[in-house]
Structures are given as structure tokens and as C-alpha cells.
Specification:
The complex is a heterodimer. Chain A is an alpha/beta fold. Chain A has a domain of 142 residues: Thiolase/Chalcone synthase (Peroxisomal Thiolase, Chain A, domain 1), CATH 3.40.47.10. Chain A is built from seven helices and seven strands; from the N terminus they run ααβαααβαβββαββ. Chain A has a four-stranded mixed sheet, with helices on both faces. In chain A, strands 5-7-6 form a three-stranded antiparallel sheet, with helices on one face. By secondary structure, chain B is an all-alpha fold. Chain B has a single domain, classed as ACP-like (Non-ribosomal Peptide Synthetase Peptidyl Carrier Protein, Chain A, Orthogonal Bundle), CATH 1.10.1200. The radius of gyration of chain B is 12 Å and the shape is globular. The model of chain B has no long low-confidence stretch (mean pLDDT 92). Classes of the chains: A alpha/beta, B mainly alpha. At the A-B interface, helix 1 and helix 4 of A face helix 2 of B. Chain B: This is Acyl carrier protein.
Chain lengths: 209, 86
């Protein structure tokens, strides 16, 4: 499944124009969901997870190379997976520890693991953002897990309301991207959510009554 | 305002993604870098590339006059004009 993409851009009008000019849509998605959360907190470590990252930027650079054109310095300087968290750190003026992960279909759980280690080290709260950009048409046949661009920001604090457990196991793939399934579980009455990826079975369970 | 100046203003807006800006917002004598428009060193590289592509001229990044040519739209237009007729 893949929905039509009219290239709508999330609003980041809270940033001055000069500061937002280099933000890609993926970066704008992160800023749009995470900024309101960060505004309520002092300095905040960030774990950013994206399986595919900025495929449109990669393709633009590769296309220039293939045509023997010089590379755009802006595109090139932002072509690494952690460029967005660098922009975030600069524009927030926050030098907390920040990590960018490119994991597979269970990137959300891998990011939770990373965030838990930061909480375990004493961070009062950790911001976790998982976001995926729609792949350019050229890559579409190879990327089948991003039906539309999406971003989810979670503010994590130490506690035991939720438990996440990993076991070996296989199961069906859900129709929706997993982060959105988790969001639905968090917003609804659901007490348990299972997520399978390859031979890994992740179980999210709500502890409190 | 000459056509070349207008073209350069629009090139600056497009190449550097200055959303919400129009050509008339950039005065011909406004400093492009630092105080003024507020562009930075990555913009300088990007703009240099865009100028070379659009006008088919070569810019030597190390030449001592290059900084002067990129001071504002007026100086940039004069530079492009001189290179095209060189």
C-alpha cells in the first residue's frame, strides 16, 4: 500500500525563515512533532530512529553524480543520517546526548532500548522520535513499509507503567507502520501489543490497573 | 533595478530556499553575509555553485576579490556581467 504524496510540508513556522530553509520534509516532520514536547522540558536527550532516512536527498546527490554535475554543498553537508539531530541540537541550543539509529522494521523497539539505557544512566527524561519519509518513485519497489510519511515523538520517563519484552518468535506483519499501531494502543484501551520482525517478537504490556 | 540584478535575487531565493522572501525584499546594496541578509558559509558555496551553473562562468573560491564580488547583489551583478563579456 502506498498513498499518493502531494508533498505537503509540516508547519515549522515557530522557526525563523533563515533557520528552517535547510530542513528537509523529514526534518520538518521531526521538528513538528517534537518541538512542542521539548518546549515543556529543560535539556532533553534525543533518540532518533529512521529505517530509510532521507532517501530523496540521497537520490538527488546520486543523480547529480550520475550526470557529472557538481554536488550541492547544502545537500552534501546534510547527507548523513545524524544530520537532522545535528540541526535539532543547533536550533534548540541543546547539547544533550543525541543518537540517530537506522534499524530495521523494529527500529522503534531498538530506539526504546537505547532510550532506556539513557534513563538507566540517570536522564530524567528522553525524547524518542521515529520518522519515515516516503521513498522517491525509483526506490518505491524496494521500500514497502512506508505507505505514507509519518513521525511519532514520545517523551519517556523512568517508570514501570509499560513493559517491553523481547523473545524469539515469528508472526504476521501488521498493515500499518508499527509506530502508529503503538500510538493507537497508547491512545486506546489496549493493554498489550505484539510486534514481530524477522525472528524477534516484541511484547508491549501495560502494567498498571 | 536591472534584469540581471532581478535574476540574481531570484536565484538567491531559489538556490538557498529562502521561503517567504521575494526579490523586492533584497535591496541591491544589502550585505548578503553576516549582518544584512544573514547568509553563512554553506550559502556562499551553494550560491557560488548556482551562479556558475546559471551563467556559465567560473569562480575561483581562493581569489582575493571573490569575497568582494559576493558582497551584495550590485557587486555580484557587476561581476557576472564582466565575466560574461570577458
Amino acid at each position: 500500500m502506498r498513498l499518493p504524496d502531494a508533498q505537503q510540508q509540516p508547519d515549522v513556522g515557530f522557526l525563523p525563515a533563515l533557520q528552517r530553509r535547510r530542513l528537509s520534509r523529514l526534518a520538518r516532520m521531526l521538528f513538528h512533532v517534537a518541538w512542542p514536547i521539548a518546549e515543556t522540558q529543560p535539556a532533553l536527550p534525543l533518540v532518533f530512529a529512521s529505517r530509510h532516512g532521507e532517501t530523496p536527498r540521497t537520490l538527488a546527490l546520486l543523480t547529480d553524480l550520475a550526470h557529472d554535475e557538481p554536488l550541492s554543498p547544502t545537500q552534501f553537508s546534510l547527507s548523513v543520517h545524524n544530520a537532522i539531530i545535528g540541526q535539532w541540537s543547533i536550533l534548540r541550543g541543546d547539547s544533550s546526548e543525541m543518537t540517530a539509529l537506522a534499524a530495521e522494521g523494529d527500529g522503534l523497539e531498538q530506539a526504546m532500548l537505547e532510550a532506556s539505557t539513557l534513563l538507566g544512566e540517570g536522564a530524567p527524561a528522553v525524547l524518542l522520535v521515529i520518522a519515515e519519509e516516503a521513498a522517491p518513485a525509483l526506490y518505491a519497489p524496494y521500500i514497502d513499509d512506508v505507505p505514507f510519511p509519518y513521525a511519532l515523538a514520545l517523551l519517556l520517563k523512568p517508570g514501570d507503567d509499560w513493559q517491553l519484552q523481547l523473545r524469539p518468535g515469528q508472526g504476521p506483519r501488521e498493515q500499518w507502520p508499527h509506530p502508529l499501531n503503538l500510538l493507537r494502543a497508547l491512545c486506546g484501551e489496549q493493554r498489550c501489543l505484539e510486534h514481530h520482525w524477522k525472528n524477534r517478537q516484541w511484547t508491549w504490556s501495560l502494567n498498571k490497573a | 533595478m536591472s534584469n540581471l540584478q532581478l535574476e540574481i535575487k531570484n536565484l538567491i531565493i531559489d538556490a538557498l530556499g529562502l521561503e517567504d522572501m521575494a526579490a523586492e525584499d533584497i535591496a541591491a546594496d544589502l550585505s548578503l553575509f553576516g549582518e544584512g541578509l544573514g547568509l553563512d558559509s554553506v550559502d556562499a558555496l551553494e550560491l557560488g555553485l548556482a551562479i556558475q551553473k546559471r551563467f556559465g562562468i567560473k569562480i575561483d573560491a581562493d581569489a582575493k576579490d571573490t569575497r568582494k564580488h559576493f558582497a551584495n547583489v550590485t557587486s555580484l551583478a557587476a561581476f557576472v556581467s564582466s565575466q560574461q563579456h570577458a
